[in-house]
Amino acid sequence: MTKYRMLLAVLLALMVASLLAACSSAGSGDTEDDVTEEPAAEGGETDGGGEQTDTGCPLDNLEEGATIVFSGWGDETEQQVYRDSIERFNEVCPDVTVDYQPIPADFETKVKAAMAGGAAPDVFYVNDQLMTAFAPTDQLMPLDEYMDEAGVSRDSFVPSLLTIFTLEDQTYALPKDWGTLGLIYLPAAFEAAGIEEPTADWTWEDLETAAAAIAETGEYGGFCMGADWARFAPFAFGNGGGYTNDENTEATVNTAEVLEAAEFIAGMKESGALVTPADVGAGWCGEAIGKELVGMTYEGGWMVNFMRNDYGEVEWKAVELPAGPTGKADVIFTNGIGVNAATEYPRAAAAFAIFLTSPENQGEITKTGFAYSTHTSQIDLVVDENDKAIAQGGTFDLTRVAYWGPNTGKINDAVSKALERVFLGEQTVEESFAQAQEEIQGFLDE
Predict the structure, then answer these.
(1) How far apart are the first and last CA of the chain?
(2) What burial letters (b/e) apply to 259-272, b meaning 16+ CB within 10 Å?
């Protein structure tokens, strides 16, 4: 068993044990595992499991007059989540000023340019691409020393999520949240088509049949999906495929398993059962659901807050993703919070990063429905019924964390472009994915 599969197995075991249990609990859900009690940090106490409680600022002796710039991507809903987080931070660390400067579009490009120009934010979202760009070049600050001082243990986080943010045994970002995909649908669309609503035992064939029936009504598009590696991933995984081998050394997108999954999607597109957001005049498939333009899509737990805030009058539901020929599969997303190594205020910036990713703050974020806590002790905090259904994807045997090594971003882009060429009719599935295979192997061989 590879290191990757071992880590994912731990995650899946935790998910099965917790999400299928008392999901309605409003408590912290702290586990009873025997752990070595760590000393309390000067700025706060720990709960015995390496997780800091909410007794004060994570770190003492912060720089006087510290003002730090914090940036992330996201729409207004996500931005509000972090404005609220900043308010909570200022309650425990009142002497630090946080200047929130969200970057909704072209985040990676703009942060890389700012870093090259010496003007990058002090604290910012870190995905696999930014981790790959900044950690090896010492532009991200290792957080381990500050974590130790604050009484924060890596062991409190879901283990597989840290693999992206670890280099040579040092932690360069802390996972801020994670999520999976679920089948999001409009009951009204199924009623209009005169068919039964989705269930947890659906298969791809059920999805295709329902999408075609909904499209035939002329009132809605059937199934919404863009040319997107993430939404395609559960299809590839559910047919026993993947984008790379387990060691992330060999491209595998031209295998029979991946090609069959792509042919299935291409067939739905050609028949009209599948529409892209652009086909129905939406920016993304979640918006297409909110505007009642399509009957179904694959989206994540972020839909809970998005629909509540922007389309509160629209009735929608979620069930777990349909099973493929090999079984049920999903994809797990995660991003982190990192600190610019050149920050003028390293202690204040580290305190903010630690607070944002703390059980205290992540517990509050989980309640909004925006995302799931990255702490093992809080996996049972999901209470929204739709969110619970979406989160089931983390328990599937074929689910994978969206990380294929340091070339993850390039690999994902190659898969998305392969789908785009197919959707546009520029190439057949076989031709397009053969091109993607060569491109991805080139990245892996660099």
Answers:
(1) 26
(2) bbbbebbbebbeee
Contacts of 119 (CB under 8 A, 6+ apart): none
The CA distance from 253 to 237, in Å, is 11
Residues 149-158: tens digit of each pLDDT: 999 999 999 8
Supply φ then ψ for residue 177, to 5 degrees. -175, 175
Long-range contacts of 198-203, Cβ-Cβ distance < 8 Å, separation of 24 or more: 198/296, 198/319, 198/322, 199/319, 200/319, 200/320, 200/389, 200/392, 201/323, 202/319, 202/322, 202/323, 203/322, 203/323, 203/324
Q: How many CA atoms lie within 13 A of 225 on its CB side?
A: 34
Is residue 238 a contact partner of residue 324, using CB atoms and an 8 Å limit? yes
State residue 366's pLDDT score: 86
pLDDT (average), residues 250-277: 98
Average pLDDT for 225-231: 98
At 166 the three-state DSSP class reads: strand
How far apart are the C-alpha atoms of 159 and 156, rounded to whole Å? 8
Of all residues in the chain, what percent carry a pLDDT higher than 90? 75
**310-319: per-residue pLDDT in tens?**
999 999 999 9
All domains of the chain in start order, with CATH: 3-22+63-179+333-388 (3.40.190.10), 181-329+407-445 (3.40.190.10)
Residues in Cβ contact with 208 at an 8 Å cutoff, skipping those fewer than 6 apart: 223, 264, 267, 268, 273
Model pLDDT, residue 55: 53
Give SS3 for 132: helix
Residues 167, 48: Cα–Cα separation, whole Å? 27
What average pLDDT does the chain have? Answer: 88
